[in-house]
Design brief:
The chain is an alpha/beta fold. The chain is about 45% helix and about 20% strand. It has ten helices and seven strands. A seven-stranded mixed beta sheet has the order 3-2-1-4-5-7-6, sandwiched between helices. Helix 5 links the parallel strand 4 and strand 5. Helix 6 packs across helix 10 and helix 9 runs antiparallel to helix 10. The chain starts with a helix and ends with a strand.
């Protein structure tokens, strides 16, 4: 699997698109807002930059794409007015892999973003320059000492590649309670390599005193195969295995499919930051959110849908491009029909939550 080519959220605006199924990610961004605002406040009050460069890594395309950027600009504008400072120029970089639907951002989202800034901030604010930066954040993206603030939410759990040596992970598509120890080790080592290099690259691109707020889909448990990080994929594997038993999917095909993701614990993140030595940890927090983003809320669709439907669509908007690239388009409807039923059954019997790990760091 060439992750750079096939990993992207499902584009467009259809019923199973990421644009219509990203409320969960929006909730996580809202939960993280106090940490993000605290970080940008400390940055601004310590430096008062004439030009403020912000990068959002793994921005995707949909209603959340410009949400954090808007929050950051409005926070800084409120601060500079309170402190009687001139407005900085804002330089905003939106990054994701080349398969991201950047056209939708500039065609549909940018006009509303600019109108919102004009309406809510008003006179006295200097221009905001926004550009797209396609490419993997597991590598250099920007010139040295050019960024002040880096944000990323629900992106860094994705690895640069599927770990090597997973041939004996039979019946699984990710780490699971039945996975051999070498599989756990391979995933962890790939995470260490990727996150360590991410930190190195960002340390070169950030100015001294620059900050990052990074939110991971993670876990609080020390066990990498705990349900906190793996269960959602184990249930998808159940649907795929059932289709193997019925001859719909080849067993060999399933055996060669593994998800390029790692859900780290707070301790693992802190360890890598300390090891890399360019940053100090300012805050490290864990939050939780229900699998069903519409839990306790109205679904946007005409019919009243069950939680299994909502979660299956959320996961489909994320995983469909990976599945299509490996198994083909023809299995998609069937696998998510089965997945929906499995999810609904488990969610009716168990407490199902995603764990979010948020780390705020400062460049030394």
């Amino acid at each position: 699997m060439d992750v750079v080519k096939v990993l992207h959220m499902k584009g467009g605006s259809g019923q199973t698109s990421y644009a219509l199924n990203s409320l969960l990610q929006q909730k996580v961004i809202s939960m993280t807002k106090p940490i993000t605002e605290e970080a940008i406040t400390k940055l601004y009050c310590n430096t008062f930059p004439a030009k403020l460069a912000i990068a959002d890594l793994g921005c995707s395309s949909g209603p959340n794409t410009l949400l954090v950027v808007t929050q950051l600009i409005m926070t800084v504008d409120k601060l500079r007015r309170k402190l009687s400072q001139e407005s900085p120029e804002y330089v905003i970089f939106l990054n994701d892999l080349p398969g991201n639907d950047f056209n939708n951002i500039f065609r549909s989202l940018l006009p509303n973003f600019q109108q919102k800034l004009t309406t809510e901030i008003g006179a006295g604010t200097r221009p905001c320059f926004l550009s797209a930066v396609p490419g993997s954040f597991y590598g250099r993206l920007f010139p040295e000492n050019s960024l002040h603030f880096v944000h990323s939410s629900y992106s860094l759990q994705w690895l640069s590649q599927v770990p090597e040596g997973l041939e004996n992970n039979k019946g699984n598509i990710y780490m699971a309670s039945s996975s051999p120890k070498n599989v756990m080790r391979a995933y962890y080592e790939q995470f260490q390599k990727d996150f360590g290099y991410f930190l190195k690259c960002r340390s070169e691109e950030l100015v001294a005193g620059g900050r990052m707020v990074l939110t991971f889909l993670g876990r609080s448990s020390q066990d990498p195969s705990s349900k906190e990080g793996c269960y959602i994929w184990e249930l998808l594997a159940t649907a795929l295995n059932d289709m193997v038993l019925e001859g719909i999917i080849e067993e060999e095909k399933l055996g060669s499919f593994n998800i390029p993701q790692y859900t780290p614990s707070p301790e693992e993140l802190k360890t890598e930051v300390i090891k890399e030595r360019s940053f100090t940890v300012d805050r490290l927090e864990v939050t939780r959110v229900h699998w069903d983003a519409y839990h306790g809320e109205l679904s946007p669709f005409d019919a009243v849908m069950d939680g299994g439907y909502n979660v299956a669509n959320c996961m489909r908007s994320v995983a469909e491009p990976l599945l299509v690239s490996h198994f083909g388009e023809e299995i998609i409807e069937e696998v998510f029909y089965r997945y929906r039923k499995i999810l609904a059954d488990r969610m009716s019997k168990e407490e199902t939550q995603f764990v979010n790990v948020i780390i705020s760091v400062v460049k030394a």
